[in-house]
Amino acid sequence: MNELKIKVCGMRDPENISGVVAARPDFIGFIFYPKSKRFVGFDHSPEVLSVVPESVKKVGVFVDETPEKLLEIYKNWKLDVVQLHGNETPEYCRQIRNSGITVFKAFSVDESFDFAALEAYSGVCDFFLFDTKGQLPGGTGQKFNWELLEKYKGSVPFFLSGGIGPDDLEAIRNFEHPRWRGIDINSGFEISPALKDVEKVKSFISAIRKSNYK
After folding, report:
1. Structure confidence by residue, pLDDT tens digits, 1-49
2. What are phi and psi of 192, to 5 degrees?
3. 9 catalytic per annotation
4. pTM for the full model?
5. Structurally, how many domains does the chain consist of?
6. What is the DSSP string of 54-73?
7. Model confidence at 152: pLDDT above 50
8. Residue 7 CB-density burial (10 A; 0-12 exposed, 13-18 middle, 19+ buried)
């Protein structure tokens, strides 16, 4: 297995972003969903874009957005990846991916999740992101039972998401799956919505990098 990729999501403040990217995450996420407490706004921010190095890929998180508006934001924000967090169909994913865009598709997992439904998304998504099922789209700040992923037998690699915090290094060390490629962190490292505790992020990423999480 390749070295775990790390995505820090829900960013908005340029100074805070500058501190986070100094920890060298692989991806940084911006949420383009107005109902989210971490909504970054639709108009592109030169201040934000100027502090993100090319080595950190910019991910735009969308929820059931029209393809036209998504592509406009993708271009204006100079994004590298699109993460779809709503009820987007395989056809929708195919349309976005055929535009030359890397596609992450998020799925909310609970005990009743039908992993067989993921087969329709194979070939039209680059990565899946498994999150905790909640009442609304987006993160819940809670972890789901990772043992449920033993039921996932597909070929699309995935990121773990949902309530991961500084105390989860041991759980990450103990988790195994042949398609697991990364982790997504957000609210578990926040001082307030969209504002990360930079030292906690740096310490966590450093521990991941130095340990044998492969």
Report:
1. 468 999 999 999 999 999 999 999 999 999 999 999 999 999 999 999 9
2. -155, 165
3. yes
4. 0.94
5. 1
6. TTSEEEEEESS--HHHHHHH
7. yes
8. buried
Catalytic residue among 9, 93, 125, 197: 9
Asked if 93 is an active-site residue, the reply is no
* Helix 90-97 with 67-76: angle, nearest 10 deg: 40
84 by DSSP, 3-state: which?
strand
The CATH number assigned to the domain holding 105 equals 3.20.20.70
Catalytic-role residue among 93, 125, 131, 184: 131
Q: Render pLDDT for 45-78 as a digit per residue (tens, 0 to 9).
A: 999 999 999 999 999 999 999 999 999 999 999 9
State which residues form the domain around 162: 5-210
The first and second tokens of residue 107, run together, are 């799925």
Determine contact, residues 65/32, Cβ cutoff 8 Å: yes
